[in-house]
């Protein structure tokens, strides 16, 4: 019998009454890769635990979190549109959450307090480091939404000089108020100014399959030879931006690594094991996309 490509690498563990529980709160949540990712790790490490999708309407968010605490969950990931509500409900906010202005990981403490963490930015940096790329020099980020803020904050914390450029200038200015030292580049000129940067990161959904502009392929004509081009979009694997970068023989970084690395902290906190990100996991999650 041939194995189904989506099969976990080891048989699913049967849950006992002591199983550790976590999940992802979102609305909708059906698109989330987090259940596939966490359950892969639970299987691999033979952990008595489960990670479930939790579709929750915004109006029921607080009630849902209190309910999860009441039934003994260890915590939860939080995805759109709940990241600000998660920030508000947390009793203790990590440095990462304060910098990002949002929370994507809730850790329920035994004393009933909730710790809020934002792991997206550090996940991005970890995915760079896993590819042997150092977060050094000057970064230019496309976009000024929530993803831009967490990546910008993390890169600043690693000592990079960071600028953002965004179609809607006011939004970029607003982000610069939240993150002191952040530069703002007009959307109309960023391609020409690219020569001044060591890292370019697309934090928008431009180039994403089914997104606002799947063909988004800016000019990298002015790029310096050492420019690293990163995309947080991971469907498709080779976005038009990354294809353009390859054409210019620039180093590239796809978005899947960030998704995998941002999940590690939650898994460690809830299930007590520091999980590995490797090629098998990447292939498994990609097959489930
Ligand atoms: P997230 O929180 O996931 O980053 P978001 O807050 O909706 O998502 O941000 C989406 C980003 O994609 C924004 O920077 C947005 O630019 P605007 O602020 O001008 O809306 C950017 N974006 C989306 N569609 C775009 C398009 N067609 N052209 C340029 N930028 C676009």
From TrEMBL:
Describe the reaction catalysed, as an equation: shikimate + NADP(+) = 3-dehydroshikimate + NADPH + H(+)
Recorded hits in Gene3D superfamilies, A to Z, give: Leucine Dehydrogenase, chain A, domain 1, NAD(P)-binding Rossmann-like Domain
| Described purpose of this protein according to its UniProt entry | Involved in the biosynthesis of the chorismate, which leads to the biosynthesis of aromatic amino acids. Catalyzes the reversible NADPH linked reduction of 3-dehydroshikimate (DHSA) to yield shikimate (SA).
Q: Which gene encodes it?
A: aroE
Q: Where is the SDH C-terminal domain?
A: 255-283
Every Shikimate dehydrogenase substrate binding N-terminal domain range? 24-106
The record's SUPFAM superfamilies line, in alphabetical order, gives:
Aminoacid dehydrogenase-like, N-terminal domain, NAD(P)-binding Rossmann-fold domains
Read off the lineage from the record.
Bacteria, Pseudomonadati, Pseudomonadota, Alphaproteobacteria, Acetobacterales
> What InterPro entries does this protein map onto?
Aminoacid_DH-like_N_sf (IPR046346), NAD(P)-bd_dom_sf (IPR036291), SDH_C (IPR041121), Shikimate_DH (IPR011342), Shikimate_DH-bd_N (IPR013708), Shikimate_DH_fam (IPR022893), Shikm_DH/Glu-tRNA_Rdtase (IPR006151)
Pathway annotation: Metabolic intermediate biosynthesis; chorismate biosynthesis; chorismate from D-erythrose 4-phosphate and phosphoenolpyruvate: step 4/7
In the record, what terms sit under GO molecular function?
NADP binding; shikimate 3-dehydrogenase (NADP+) activity
The record lists NADP(+) as bound by 143-147, 166-171, 232, 255
Residues of the active site: 83
Q: Which CDD domains match?
A: NAD_bind_Shikimate_DH
One GO biological-process annotation of the entry reads: shikimate metabolic process
Q: What is this protein called?
A: Shikimate dehydrogenase (NADP(+))
- Please give one Pfam family short name: SDH_C
One GO cellular component term of this record is: cytosol
């Amino acid at each position: 019998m041939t194995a189904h490509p989506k099969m976990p690498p080891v048989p699913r563990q049967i849950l006992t009454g002591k199983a550790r529980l976590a999940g992802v709160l979102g609305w909708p949540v059906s698109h989330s890769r987090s259940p596939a990712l966490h359950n892969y790790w639970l299987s691999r490490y033979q952990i008595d635990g489960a990670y479930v999708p939790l579709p929750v309407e915004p109006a029921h968010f607080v009630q849902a979190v209190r309910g999860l605490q009441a039934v003994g969950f260890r915590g939860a990931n939080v995805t759109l549109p709940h990241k600000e509500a998660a920030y508000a409900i947390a009793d203790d906010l990590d440095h990462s959450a304060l910098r990002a202005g949002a929370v994507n990981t809730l850790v329920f403490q035994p004393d009933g307090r909730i710790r809020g963490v934002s792991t997206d930015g550090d996940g991005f940096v970890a995915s760079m480091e896993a590819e042997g790329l150092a977060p050094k020099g000057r970064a230019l980020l496309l976009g000024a939404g929530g993803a831009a803020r967490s990546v910008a904050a993390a890169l600043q914390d690693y000592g990079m000089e960071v600028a953002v450029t965004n179609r809607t200038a006011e939004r970029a200015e607003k982000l610069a108020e939240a993150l002191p030292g952040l530069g703002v580049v007009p959307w109309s000129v960023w391609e020409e100014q690219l020569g001044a940067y060591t890292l370019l990161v697309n934090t928008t959904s431009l180039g994403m399959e089914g997104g606002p502009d799947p063909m988004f392929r800016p000019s990298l004509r002015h790029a310096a030879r050492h420019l690293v081009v990163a995309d947080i979009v991971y469907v498709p694997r080779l976005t038009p931006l990354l294809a353009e970068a390859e054409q210019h023989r620039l180093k590239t970084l796809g978005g899947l690594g960030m998704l995998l690395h941002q999940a590690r902290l939650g898994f460690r906190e809830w299930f007590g094991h520091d999980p590995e990100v490797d090629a098998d996991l990447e292939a498994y999650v990609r097959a489930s996309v």
